UniProtKB/TrEMBL annotation:
Keywords: Membrane, Transmembrane, Transmembrane helix. One of its GO terms (biological process) is ceramide biosynthetic process. The chain crosses the membrane at residues 25-45, 51-72, 185-201. One of its GO terms (cellular component) is membrane. Residues 51-291 form the Fatty acid desaturase domain. The keyword Transmembrane applies. It comes from Sagittula marina. GO terms for molecular function: sphingolipid delta-4 desaturase activity. The keyword Transmembrane helix applies. Pfam families: FA_desaturase. The lineage of its organism: Bacteria, Pseudomonadati, Pseudomonadota, Alphaproteobacteria, Rhodobacterales. Coiled coil: none annotated. It comes from the Bacteria. This is Fatty acid desaturase.
Amino acid sequence: MTRQPTATDLLSRGEIRALSQRSDVWGVWLVFHAWGLILGSVWMFTLWPSVLTFALAVVVIGSRQLGLAILMHEAAHNALFRTRRWNEQVGAWVCGRPILADLASYRHYHLQHHRHTQTDRDPDLKLSRPFPTTRASLRRKLIRDLTGQTGVKQRAAQIAFAFRLVGETDGVSSQDLAQAFSGPVLGRALMVNVGLFALFWAMGAWWYWLAFWLLPLLTWFQLVLRVRNIAEHGAVEASDDPFRNTRTTLANPLERLLVAPYWVNYHLEHHLLMHVPAYRLPRLHRILQQKGLSTRMTVAPGYIDVLRQASARRPAPPA
């Protein structure tokens, strides 16, 4: 079997050291940016209430809920802050628990994905294996996400697992629910959401938490989470080559706002050197290009192109 290249084969120690530098200032800015867009969207609707500002707020907030998940992912790699305690506390309480996610559970699950990418031991394989699929199948999945069906099903499974109403033998395992909770962990997440309920009420009305937190979490967040998962490992080569089993997607400003916040689109680079903070991944991408690796890398020109690739399978002919 041919040995696949690692980051140390492609980059100098100096390059790796420079790319891996963490920053508390960057961490604070990213967390404030995510929450600033969330609260700013709610405030925009409060000042100019309309169907348009309501829909825009739901979409922007849903994308920033994904942004919080990405920042929790950064914390799982100890890359969000330089100060380890900030990494753990902010990653858990400010990024993870508001979206009903648990940093410790996620870290354990996610590192398995890095160790076993696109193999039978990859806990995320179920997310990529169905692709490419047909357009009709992809359309049904996206409709289930956007209408809240996926979100309700997953949150109900989380709660059932937390209270041991189901067990691993019932088809709901910690790998199936990357955020499978214990009762106390769920309690802390609910406590944070009670605080959010009070904050949103203070900004406008009691129903704001339902409209501007729960609704985006069950709809737009689920949609962009699926699109992100497809873009990262869907319809790529099933191999152990880090340049072929993971995809980077070039995102335009609108895609970065609504689908791919905080450089999550540079996923090939992240797998190659997973401790590099997200804001340095574009630089790593350029370094790889300068080293003549562009033709070897799996890169999509945008998310529309990714969805075309993911739905390229022709439907089976009628019997």
